[in-house]
Amino acid sequence: MTNIMVDSTALGALTIAVLLEGSVILGLLVSILSEDRRFWPPGNVSWKFWYYWGGSAITFAALAVVGYLDAGSFVFTTRLWDWIGTVLLVLGTGFAGWSGYLFRTRESFGLAGELHTGGPYRYSRNPQYVGMVGIFTGIALIVNATLLFVGFLPVFVWLWLLPRAEEPWLRDQFGEEYEAYRESVPRFLGIRSLK
Q1: Which top-rank group of organisms is this from (predicted)?
Q2: Domain map of the chain by residue range?
Q3: pLDDT tens, residue by residue, 177-192
Q4: Contact at 8 Å (CB) between 38 and 164?
Q5: What is the pTM assigned to this prediction?
Q6: Domain 2-194 has CATH 1.20.120
Q7: How does 163-184 read in b/e, with b if 16+ C-beta sit within 10 Å?
Q8: Which of 4, 47, 87, 127 has the most CB within a 10 Å radius?
């Protein structure tokens, strides 16, 4: 009886997370396809700002419930996966933390600010997103929950779409300075990151 309760609660939390992830992904696709109907970045505090960040908070709270209730249900059963997950979590947290420290909170929330090109932004135009991929992958390996893996798949699509939605806005904000930066630094990580 308890397993059925846990499974239905985890499935309910997963459903909430996936529905919210889907709505944010849809908003990002609209932003990419139509600059006149931009959802992300909001640029200022508006309903888009609150929807994005409120939806994000609920999504990740729901995924935390999923991970807690479904922990240990997937295929990564050896300690090696825990170590790999821990390394990815630490590296991801370090990279995202370093870039977040240099970014002001306002800019991290998608509001107008300055163009950053130093620190981790020398290696990636989106080091916070690179770090988040490490964080989420590390958590997924450590928690080893089947439903959490399912819930994290849309998160990776979300992180892949975010910079594509931001780039036209950044081009509008910073013009040629952003274009020169975009040409010299990869979107995520790549060969140009090593130079």
Answers
A1: Archaea
A2: 2-194
A3: 999 999 999 999 876 6
A4: no
A5: 0.86
A6: yes
A7: bebbbebbeebeeeebeebeee
A8: 127
